[in-house]
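ARCHIVE CARD
Drawer: 12
Card no.: 0347
Subject: one protein chain, sequence and derived structure
Cross-reference: see card 0346
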Amino acid sequence: MVTGEEIEEVEQYIYLGQEVNMRQDLNGELSRRIWAGWCAFNSIKDVLKGKIDKTTCTNIFNSTMVLAMLYGSETWALMKREEQRLSVAERAMEHVGNFPSGSHPK
């Protein structure tokens, strides 16, 4: 209890933009981040339909989709399977957005 109010116990919650859960499972957070990357992509897809040089295209990719997908990743301890999931999403965005392959520096 805090100041007379009972605090609800939950399995997961969002804190500072990241999903925190009691199982130390990143699946939910990875799904949220991949979704955020696609939302960022959809917000600029009209810009991408124009004639844009590859450097600008790469800069757009790195400053929108990649940042949205990797927000909070400094705290992640990824397994190979989870790294693969992020790589597949990144390649799909590169393909759909007609970005140069490997736009994001590893």
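Annotation on reverse: The CA atoms of residues 37 and 66 lie 7 Å apart. The longest helix spans residues 27-48.
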